[in-house]
Amino acid sequence: MVTSNFWPEPTGTSQTVWEFVCFLSNAGIPVQVATSMPYYPEWSIAPSYRGNLWSSEQQGAVTIRRAWHYVRPHPTTITRLLHELTLSLLSIPNFFRVFAGAEQAYIVSPALSYAFTATLVAKLFRVRTVLVIKDVMPDAAVELGMLKNSFLIGLSRRLARWIYKRADEIHTLGEGMRRRVERDADGRKVRIIPDTIDAAELEPVPYDVNEFRRRFVPKGTFAVLHTGNMGQKQDLDLLLRTAQRLRHDPGVHFYVFGDGATKDRFLRLRAEHGLSNISHYPLQERAFLRHMLSGADLVLISQLPEVVDIVVPSKLVTALGAGAMIVGACAPESETARLIGESGGGLLVPASDDEALAATIQRLRSRQVDTARLRRQAREFAVRRFDRNAIYGALLA
Question: Is residue 391 in some structural domain?
Fold first, then answer.
């Protein structure tokens, strides 16, 4: 397994790749991982991993080999490139170690230069490669305005096509992502392998014994929750504007649990606007997640209007599995909108539309919506569609 993000990072790709590795290991398959020093979503190497170029550790039967890399908070195009390049170069010794004797390599993107280097080494060892695409790059960076240099865009597109051509198999998260990848790849080797859930881990917790309600939510308060990565794609400005609209309503409170590249800006704007109806907390332990998702009155899945088919947010799959009351603020043609609509387990508002989100909050507060039905349908859909044993078990058949 080659991935630029991995355990113990708590969000997104790190979590879903860790779940897959645990599944393989529990099935009796020896797994070695080449990865980075943990740094995400804070964009700072964790203190216990600083000071070494390489490290190795065991988690059960899983061997994890890490390499140092450049990283700085508030990432820019240049610092992101330096991060990828240093990780790619310093990981080469680890690639030789993990590919020696391997039967199959899963190479996780969006880190294109990292995936490129890993693919080169894997082919030297004649190891079958599966490219796992979590974000379609460079499309995501270009469409979100994070990559604007025409030379770098062209180079990134050539890298992506080179990797696609040499992968023996390609996994994407959804239909829209598959269509986009098939523009540059042989469609016969592209498969949809979505992120998964453990239904028991996400069992909803009733309000009367819910720790999120007890610890964070005063009685009678309508709790709006955003949890996970605080990045550009998540459009946290929408939450700020909605909180500003409802700032004089003491019955509504916004809870943000997370970290990421835009956290400091978010907290600065909250302070500048005096938004005391927003509370921010660090990411919580995994066992607390089901309390949060099922205990919130509204779980917000927000995306910029440009985010259509470049990603399927893992937090949406998790929220569905926990039976959350989901509101998706996203483009109507996006993968997020498609999944929420197909599940019948949530409501949709236009991307970046704070007026519509505020109105939806009031609809939910006044019980104009059968939230129990939506929650039930969300969980039933997730258990049926994203069961971990069914999805990953099919890969081993």
Answer: no
Q: What is the DSSP letter of 339?
A: H
For residue 171 the two structure tokens come to 């996994």
Q: Angle, to 10 degrees, between the axis of helix 112-124 and the axis of helix 150-166?
A: 30
Q: 223 and 162, same structural domain?
A: no
Specify whether the CB–CB gap between 119 and 107 falls below 8 A: yes
Q: Is residue 354 domain-resident? A: yes
Model pTM score: 0.91
What mean pLDDT is predicted for residues 2-13? Answer: 93
What is the domain extent for residue 62?
A: 12-193
Locate the DSSP E strands across the chain.
31-36, 54-59, 62-67, 104-109, 128-133, 169-172, 190-192, 222-229, 252-259, 278-281, 298-302, 326-330, 346-350
* DSSP letter string, 158-217: HHHHHHHHH-SEEEESSHHHHHHHTTTS-GGGEEE----B-TTTT----GGG-HHHHHH-
Residue position matching structure tokens 């645990």:
22
Tokens of 212: 């999120």
Write down the residue that tokens 């974000």 correspond to.
135
Q: What is the CATH number of the domain that holds 243?
A: 3.40.50.2000
CA–CA distance, 357 with 30 (Å, rounded to integer): 47
With beta carbons less than 8 A apart as the criterion, state whether 258 and 269 touch: no
Q: Tally the C-alpha atoms within 13 A of residue 170's C-alpha that lie toward its C-beta.
A: 30
Residue 284's nearest CA partner among 295, 271, 298, 273 is 295
Cβ-proximal residues to 195 (8 Å cutoff; 6+ apart), any chain: 16, 173, 312, 314, 317, 386
The Cα–Cα gap between 115 and 221 comes to 46
344-396 pLDDT, tens per residue? Answer: 999 999 999 999 999 999 999 999 999 999 999 999 999 999 999 999 999 98
Please name which of 42, 40, 48 lies closest in space to residue 18, comparing C-alpha atoms. Answer: 40
Are residues 381 and 326 part of one domain? yes
